[in-house]
Design a protein that fits this description.
This protein is mainly alpha-helical. It has 19 helices and 2 strands. Strands 1-2 form a two-stranded antiparallel ribbon. A hairpin with a 2-residue loop joins β1 (364-367) and β2. GO terms for molecular function: 4-hydroxybenzoate geranyltransferase activity; 4-hydroxybenzoate polyprenyltransferase activity.
């Protein structure tokens, strides 16, 4: 599943007089990483006494210019730092400390990227909390059971996704080092690992207060067929929404032993709209590669109108959440948190840079020894927390 995912050397840019022409200055000014404008706005830098510096830095200047017009390569990474004696810090993962034999499988299950697990847990937690009696807190046993099962189920979903996409992943810069794409894990090993994770999650699901094999089977079917949808429809993010928010149905059933459509259906739809929003942002980082290999996504379908589309989905998500709260007779505290969550979505949509992979992927980016946070994908965790907090307090004070 998509949602379920610079080293360098000392900089050679010790002198700011690398670019004698204003167009280059404008390119760097708007570059999302370099942004070297302060070094090029001093007129004295272009005086005759500095002309001798231009020749010695010509090659560095050309290299720096290339980062403004093409993806960052190995040679370009050395020049991302814009100050003397500064380095870009390589981000390492705790997976690197595991035994070598285990590392490929840990990466296959995305255990170092827990945001996808959170996206599975939130719909279940919302629903199970809604199902609690008025004035009461939710049954933490059910929440704990699902929280334990979610990492294994999410890992299984990622594994089957990589199995189907292994040939496509080889052609995409962001995914070419995934275990099955790189050959670190064979397809047969991947399928065995997929089955192993499903068995673990199934054993944990059985501990729910009310278990339904039909709901779990539908959950598994959606997860296994999701990777195929990106070959068939541009609305693959909508199918992902159906898959990742299935916990909204399971959560209510785990508590009540039955379903109440007036509450469960709008809650499920709100999660689907939310998923389309954040995964469309996420898909923008791969849109150029997706066109080359023939993968479809809402990022390609919406194109330059993406912000208008995801604004509509944000409104739909907030609206259906409000309908859910009304039908469930939640107290006023919920609507305070819903307003805060609405502001978070509005901020996210307004500020996200859809042309920046780092911004869409919401990664840590180490530049000039400072942590630079993108805007978009991981910030949705806080949306989920706000809604869960609102439902909890709304139920307690209903």
């Amino acid at each position: 599943m998509a949602s379920f995912s610079v080293g360098g050397a000392h900089s050679s840019l010790r002198t700011p007089s690398l670019f004698p022409t204003p167009p280059t200055i404008r390119m760097l000014k708007h570059h999302p990483v370099l942004n070297c404008t302060p070094f090029f706005t001093t007129p004295s830098l272009f005086s005759p006494k500095n002309l001798s510096l231009r020749s010695s830095n010509h090659r560095a200047g050309i290299a720096c210019m290339s980062t403004t017009t093409s993806p960052v390569g190995k040679d370009d990474q050395k020049l991302i730092s814009g100050q003397p004696n500064e380095k870009v810090v390589q981000v390492s993962s705790w997976i690197d400390y595991l035994p070598k034999e285990i590392q490929p499988f840990a990466k296959l299950a995305r255990v170092d990227k827990p945001i996808g697990t959170w996206f599975l847990i939130f719909p279940f937690a919302w629903s199970a909390t809604l199902a609690a009696a008025s004035g009461s807190i939710p049954d933490f046993r059910n929440l704990a059971v699902f929280a334990c099962a979610a990492p294994f189920f999410r890992g299984a979903a990622c594994t089957i996704n990589d199995f189907f996409d292994r040939d496509f992943d080889k052609m995409v810069e962001r995914t070419k080092e995934r275990p099955m794409a790189s050959g670190a894990v064979t397809p047969f090993q991947g399928l065995c690992f997929f089955a192993f994770q499903l068995l673990l999650s199934h054993g944990i699901f059985l501990q729910l207060t009310n278990y339904s094999w039909i709901i779990e089977a539908a959950f598994i079917f959606l997860s296994c067929t999701y990777p195929l949808m990106k070959r068939l429809t541009y609305w693959v993010q909508a199918y992902l929404g159906l898959t990742i928010n299935w916990g909204a149905i399971l959560g209510w059933y785990a508590v009540k032993g039955s379903l109440q459509p007036s509450i469960v259906l709008p809650l499920f739809l709100s999660g689907c709209f939310w998923t389309i929003l954040y995964d469309t942002i996420y898909a923008h980082q791969d849109k150029e590669d997706d066109v080359k290999v023939g993968i479809k996504s809402t990022a390609l379908k919406f194109g330059e109108s993406t912000k208008e589309w995801i604004t509509g989905f944000a409104i739909a998500s907030i609206g259906t959440l409000a309908l859910t709260a009304y039908n469930a007779a939640l107290g006023r505290p919920f609507y305070v948190f819903l307003a805060a969550a609405s502001g978070q979505l509005a901020w996210q949509i307004r500020t996200v840079n859809l042309s920046s992979a780092a911004d869409c992927n919401r990664k840590y980016v180490y530049v000039f020894r400072f942590k630079v946070f993108g805007i978009g994908f991981v910030s949705n965790k806080w949306f989920g927390v706000l809604i869960l907090s609102g439902i909890l307090l709304g139920r307690v004070f209903s």
